[in-house]
Amino acid sequence: MHPSSASPRQTVAVVGLGSIGGVIAGALRAADRHDVLACVRTSIDHLTVERPDGVVRTPLRTITDPAQATPVDWVLLSTKVQDVPKSASWLAALCTPNTRVAVLQNGIGHVERLTPLVGGATIVPTIVYYNSERLAADHVRMRPADSQEFAVRDDADGHAFAELLHGAPMRTLVSADFLTLAWRKLLLNVIANPITALAMERMTVLRRDDVQALCMETLHEAVAVGRAEGAQLPDDAADQALATILSYPAEAGTSMYFDRLAGRPLEIEALTGAVVAAGRKHGIPTPVNNTMFTLLRAVHDAHVAASR
Predict the structure, then answer these.
(1) Which tens digit of pLDDT belongs to each residue from 211-223?
(2) Active site residue 281
(3) Catalytic pick among 80, 86, 185, 281
């Protein structure tokens, strides 16, 4: 879509300046159509974003205390799902009923998860497609991973998000079947994230024949669950998902892989956990996903115990 370049300047707060948040903050700041603020733990003056078309370094205003925040037009929530409770004080300070909160997170169930925390603000679910890596607090690397960077619902709020990004090098797909797109993205996440995290390897591990066989078992379970949830997934959805993953660079990592390397809690409830929970709801067995979920929880709990 091609929104109007004459849209008014808006205030945008990016909560969570990790790999996803760093890329979008850098893109919006470089386009300079809106006033961009990053809500972070450690203050920085500039942000460097490596893209395939070059490196962009821009100044960036940051704050480190929710007490410094005032209401904004847009919040871009790009923390991990497991860190949402820690974002509650930021959301309380930044949101009013006139605010839109775009959720730049993996998984499904964004609206249900965020509604109690946003003070009547409008929640805009998104699907993030780009692969990114946080190299330092002020430095991220972005790799395109599809024909678009985001997908949103075909409604007024989805169109408003697409317009927000107008002028930035971020392509947005507006879709009338967001549920199916969300499950298609979840299919990618339930193989790439758990397997790279458990194997402690980047996506090169997915080139192994035995790992690809494991991927297909995992995907067939998830496809059955997604269909029960209402997603329009074709008979070859599992093959398509694996082919998509194998089209990514072997040296690319996943968010769960990077979190395990850093000893951080893992984003398991919103990914593998979502498939297991939905399977249980519909009476669909998910033994392979459940096995990965159990192993990931063991790793997650070890990381949490070590951080205390």
Answers:
(1) 999 999 999 999 9
(2) no
(3) 185
Q: What is the largest CA-CA distance in the chain?
A: 53
In a domain, 1, yes or no: no
164 and 219 together in one domain: no
Q: Give this prediction's pTM.
A: 0.89
Detail the DSSP E strand segments found in the chain: 11-15, 35-39, 46-51, 54-59, 61-63, 74-77, 100-103, 122-125, 127-128, 131-136, 139-143, 150-153, 172-175
What number of CA atoms fall less than 13 Å from residue 263's CA on the CB side? 7
Supply angle C-alpha 190, 231, 114, rounded to 5.
70
Burial class (CB in 10 A: 0-12, 13-18, 19+), 119: middle
Residue 183 and residue 196 share a domain? yes
CA distances from 30 to 3, 114, 288, 292 (A): 18, 29, 44, 40
User: CA-CA distances (angstroms) from residue 211 to 57, 191, 192, 246, 255?
Assistant: 39, 10, 11, 12, 19
Whole-angstrom distance, CA of residue 22 vs CA of residue 169: 14
User: pLDDT by residue (tens digit) across 100-141?
Assistant: 999 999 888 889 999 999 999 999 999 999 989 899 999 999
Could you tell me if residue 22 is inside a domain?
Answer: yes
The number of beta carbons lying within 10 Å of the beta carbon of residue 135 is 13
- Cα–Cα distance, 231 to 155 (Å, whole number): 19
